Amino acid sequence: MTAAPEMTVASLILQASPVVQAVMAILVLASVVSWGIILQRAGTFRRADSLSRDFEERFWSGMDMRQLHDQINHTPNPDSGCENLFRAGFQEFQRLRDKQADADAIMQGVSRALRISLSVEQGKLEAQLPFLASVGSTSPYIGLFGTVWGIMSSFLGLAKVQQATLAVVAPGIAEALIATAIGLFAAIPAVLAYNRFSARSNSLLSRYEIFAEELSSILHREAHAHHAVR
């Protein structure tokens, strides 16, 4: 009596039907891309947080804003959200004041520049997060499709044999279940990363909004003080 060939995960994947193999390939590709995004986003959030904290320390150190503006233009850090907000708001403030605009017009321009800069920073922080959400929500269903297809193929093959045994149907069911496992393997890290990055994005955006409000208040006082002197 010959022993049944040993089943391994690799052999089951190689012997799977083309449809199940295609499903597995899609899920593996989605997982690889997800991990690339996770690593890239983790570095982006870490850098944005560190650079923004450093800039806020410089901003609140009492340095003259014109001097600070000249420094950041000389050595810019585009990943620092607070620095980008300051640059956008202060440049608009200087531009309108040089045109001898009144204080209200200056502050309207500053507010508009800060809103646009905030939208840009929000786009940077939330970039590629929808892909993680899509992978997290669809991968289990894609894997389930592969499982259903594999089990269906196994039972169709079972109908063609005279003696139905577990050994006949087991390989097909096992290869089908691998598709579900790969789907979960792709989905779970994507969901966890999406939730984590969404929370960090909201936290950073809250800091940016507070900084923008404080900067607007400072510029508001300076604009009115400048016109009072005139």
Task: Give a description of the structure.
Helices cover 85% and strands 0% of the residues. With 230 residues, the protein is mainly α. It has one domain. The protein is rod-shaped and about 95 Å long. The mean pLDDT is 86.
Please give the structural blueprint.
Elements: H1 9-15, H2 18-59, H3 65-74, H4 81-98, H5 103-126, H6 129-158, H7 166-229
Helix pairs in contact: 1-7, 2-6, 2-7, 3-4, 4-5, 4-7, 5-7, 6-7
Keywords for this entry:
transmembrane helix; Tol-Pal system protein TolQ; mainly alpha; rod-shaped; 85% helix; cell division; cell inner membrane; single chain; 230 residues
SSE series = HHHHHHH
Number of helices: 7
Distance between the termini: 105 Å
Shape: rod-shaped
Task: Output mean pLDDT.
Answer: 86
Radius of gyration: 29 Å
Q: Percent of residues in beta strands?
A: under 5%
The total domain count is 1
> Which segments are poorly predicted (pLDDT under 50) over 5 or more consecutive residues?
none
What portion of residues is helical? Answer: over 70%
Secondary-structure-based class equals mainly alpha
Number of strands: 0
Q: What's the main sheet like?
A: none
Pfam family, one: MotA_ExbB
Keywords: Cell cycle, Cell division, Cell inner membrane, Cell membrane, Membrane, Transmembrane, Transmembrane helix
InterPro entries: ExbB/TolQ_transport, MotA_ExbB_proton_chnl, Tol-Pal_TolQ
Function: Part of the Tol-Pal system, which plays a role in outer membrane invagination during cell division and is important for maintaining outer membrane integrity.
